[in-house]
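Sync notes, pocket subgroup
Present: LS, DG
LS reminded everyone that the earlier model was apo-only. Rerun requested with zinc ion included. Inputs:
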Amino acid sequence: MKYTNDRVPLRFDGGVEVSRPWLSADQHRAQRILRKHASEPVQCLCTPSGVPMHVVCRGGSFHLATMPGRAHHHALSCPSYRPDRKTSGLKHYDRSAYTLTGQNQNVFVSSSPVGAPPFSHFTPSAVLQLLWDLAGLTVCTPKILAKRKYFLVSRSLADVCAGFRINGDAMRPYIPLAFTDPRFCRYLLGGVRRICHGRYGNAIHLSADNDHTFWVDQKEWSNSALSEVFGPFDEPQWQRGYFIIARLFLTRHGNFRLFDSGLLRVNRSFLPVTVADEGFLQGLVDANRRFFVCQRYDAIGDDRIPLVVLIDRDEPLYLYSGQPF
Ligand SMILES: [Zn+2]
């Protein structure tokens, strides 16, 4: 899970260090200190080399502000961190596709093609990418990887889905190991363990779930990412490392059917990866580098988006596939 560490100290000129909670606990004290240091540089100590900030005066009161173009230089866990739009395909969606209301994420999803940007909706596969990102599963550090097991991935996704709405409705996902009964769920989310061609459609079984079978009919199979990845309906070929998201429907005969399926390929550390970039990414993992994976979402052709951002340097470094690191 992503977390915010607001205890990161700030260092004012002259070496005075304070934490953000201490500063915000007393507004009079905060204003006095910020006014005193208004003309001096401030360092946020969220990274080993620190990130420069400054004090600004707005409407008669003083505030801490990040220097222009430096918000993505903060540590991912720092309250001042803001992602650089250049590193994500999310910049290609218009406001109707993705909104944030309070703690709720609202996403408009459709299986129809997105057309040219700005996109007015997400495809199901892109929604899965968004959930992955929100759950902090694109981040890779040796410490995180040591803990990242299937169980924790399920829990992280479940936490994110709690505030996630699709086309205006609460998502209510069935996620093995996190939610136990799919009869009361509207969506399905999990690792694909097995696929069999059967008389009534193709049967999908999920990792960590020995109890349920989810059926996909021929029309849905042929018109979704399932046929692109697992091949023709009559002879599906299972591939390792795919997670699925789909709309879940319980028939009156008690069978689970899937619609509007999307897929995400992940490596054994659960990082999103394409077949072409898997070796490159594994090289970074083996070298114990700290980085996060950038996702293109539906902007598949936007090759200006880097593959990863290295975050173990003084400044974030954007890496493209095959580039030396
Ligand atoms: Zn910071």
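DG: The longest strand covers residues 187-198.
LS: The CA atoms of residues 38 and 54 lie 7 Å apart.
Action: DG to write up.
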